[in-house]
């Protein structure tokens, strides 16, 4: 554990750093808590015997997250899982163990996948069909027609005059054409990242939504275009099936509101009157008025997470999934030849293409879940275009994470 990072967290929260106490043992921490002082522990395991109801795991380190969550459950504590890197590998088995113990294991409000789970469950509870759901990528594409340029988080890109038209509002019936044209012009600008795929894979496992393609489409679209584009082809969209998980890059003018990295669902319903209510009471429809957009244009990260902790601790309920199955993994395809001995990076790495594929066991020739490989060295070369497999990685000596994954495979995938 990093006491300096913990101190910065207290500082960001506005707490007086002079009052914080760095503790090495459970007893020291208990004494400090009794006196009302904020505590920093040098060993996370020391908190397991403290009088705490909920452990919020937010290290972002797969192995540490697995160890902390498992120990919390063994010690009778609810787990609010912020660390997507752990959740995508062993979240379902941790939830199963928590359920068996009468405890809560949950994703958190504030994180996009947690918010999307709640939005999907809410819509289905109302009897709506969720045709698609997802998140907006973190940064909007702000198109200024006066300069014919797109501003993005890392600078501006000038649009060639011959492509000016494709960033203006488009006719609904041409959805697939303008989505493809925009992606061709923008290239890798604002491309989907590994962490985006990871969050959506967790949401897919929690909601039953499925990827339409393993890379996701992640179209560059304005907010009103979402219910037209991320709809089935029979409704004028680009999707080959119903119930799809995906992402969007929000395209907007400088004076328009954006998505703020928020979440969305595109919904439909069976009868005409209900569709009329959806499309006449504030939701954005497609041209045929057969789909409608419901969206939340913000996610407030840790500002919202206390609600999850309170719901778990006081109501013994999750704010995330009630059903959580390991349907999909995030796997890695080499974008360049990777050499034996190379260490696999994190989900920000540029030499990896991240794919959402059906989950499989840790058999030698199967794709290895990316975050299980992250931080470990390759034992063989991986040519460009090839998927990294289980046999290309040697399991580390601290095998809590790997052991949990094998138990998850045995429980869910080997039947």
Compact summary:
Strands 6, 7, 8, 9, 10, 11, 12, 13, 14 and 15 form a 10-stranded mixed β-sheet that branches. This protein has a 3-stranded parallel β-sheet with strand order 3-4-5, with helices on both faces. A two-stranded parallel sheet has the order 1-2. Strand 4, helix 4 and strand 5 (105-106) form a beta-alpha-beta unit. The longest helix has 17 residues, at 84-100.
Order of helices and strands: HEHEEHEHEHEEEEHHEEHEEHEEHEEHH
Spatial separation of the terminal alpha carbons: 38 Å
Biggest β-sheet: count, sense, barrel? 10 strands, mixed
pLDDT < 50 runs, ≥5 residues: none
Could you walk me through the main structural features you see in this protein, from its secondary elements to its overall organization?
This protein has 415 residues and is an alpha/beta fold. It has 3 domains: 3-112 and 302-315, Rossmann fold, CATH 3.40.50; 126-299, no CATH class; 328-413, Type Iii Antifreeze Protein Isoform Hplc 12 (Alpha-Beta Complex), CATH 3.90.1210.10. The protein contains 12 helices and 17 strands. It has helices at 3-12, 26-34, 62-74, 84-100, 112-125, 175-186, 194-207, 226-229, 272-280, 305-315, 370-373, 400-413; strands at 21-23, 39-41, 54-57, 78-81, 105-106, 129-136, 141-144, 149-152, 155-158, 210-211, 220-221, 244-252, 263-268, 284-285, 292-296, 328-334, 352-358. Strands 6, 7, 8, 9, 10, 11, 12, 13, 14 and 15 form a 10-stranded mixed sheet that branches. A 3-stranded parallel sheet has the order 3-4-5, sandwiched between helices. Strands 1-2 form a two-stranded parallel sheet. Strand 8 and strand 9 (155-158) form a beta hairpin. Helix 3 (62-74) runs parallel beside helix 4, helix 4 (84-100) packs parallel to helix 7 and helix 4 (84-100) crosses helix 12. It starts with a helix and ends with a helix.
């Amino acid at each position: 554990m990093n006491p300096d990072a913990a101190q910065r967290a207290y500082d960001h929260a506005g707490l007086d750093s002079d009052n914080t106490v760095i503790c090495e043992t459970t007893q020291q921490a208990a004494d400090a808590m009794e006196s009302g002082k904020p505590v920093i522990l040098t060993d996370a395991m020391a908190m397991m015997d403290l009088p705490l109801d909920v452990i919020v795991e937010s290290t972002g380190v797969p192995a540490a997250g697995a160890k902390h969550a498992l120990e919390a459950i063994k010690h009778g504590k609810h787990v609010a899982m912020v660390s997507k890197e752990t959740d995508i590998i062993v979240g379902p088995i941790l939830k199963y163990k928590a359920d068996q113990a009468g405890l809560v294991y949950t994703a958190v409000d504030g994180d996009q996948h947690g918010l999307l789970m709640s939005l999907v469950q809410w819509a289905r509870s109302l009897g709506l069909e969720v045709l698609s759901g997802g998140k907006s990528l973190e940064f909007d594409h702000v198109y200024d027609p006066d300069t014919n340029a797109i501003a993005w988080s890392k600078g501006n890109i000038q649009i060639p005059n011959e492509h000016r038209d494709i960033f203006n509002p488009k006719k609904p019936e041409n959805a697939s054409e303008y989505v493809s044209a925009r992606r061709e012009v923008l290239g890798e600008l604002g491309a989907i990242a590994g962490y985006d795929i990871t969050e959506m894979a967790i949401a897919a496992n929690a909601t039953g939504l499925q990827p339409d393609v393993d890379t996701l489409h992640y179209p560059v679209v304005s907010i009103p275009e979402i219910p037209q584009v991320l709809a089935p082809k029979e409704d004028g969209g680009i999707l080959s099936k119903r119930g799809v998980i995906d992402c969007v890059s929000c395209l907007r003018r400088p004076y328009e509101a954006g998505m703020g990295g928020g979440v969305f669902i595109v919904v439909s319903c069976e009868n005409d009157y209900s569709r009329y209510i959806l499309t006449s009471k504030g939701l954005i429809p497609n041209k045929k008025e057969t789909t409608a957009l419901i969206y939340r244009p913000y996610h407030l990260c840790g500002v919202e997470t206390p609600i999850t902790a309170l719901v778990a601790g006081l109501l013994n309920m999750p704010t995330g999934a009630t059903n959580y199955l390991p349907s999909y993994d995030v796997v890695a395809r080499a974008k360049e030849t990777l050499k034996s001995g190379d260490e696999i990076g994190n989900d920000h790495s540029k030499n990896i293409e991240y794919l959402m594929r059906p989950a499989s066991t840790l058999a030698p020739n199967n794709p290895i879940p990316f975050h299980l490989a992250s931080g470990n060295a390759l034992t063989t070369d991986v040519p460009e275009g090839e998927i990294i497999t289980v046999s290309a990685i040697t399991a580390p000596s601290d095998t809590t994470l790997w052991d949990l994954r094998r138990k998850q495979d045995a429980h869910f995938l080997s039947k």
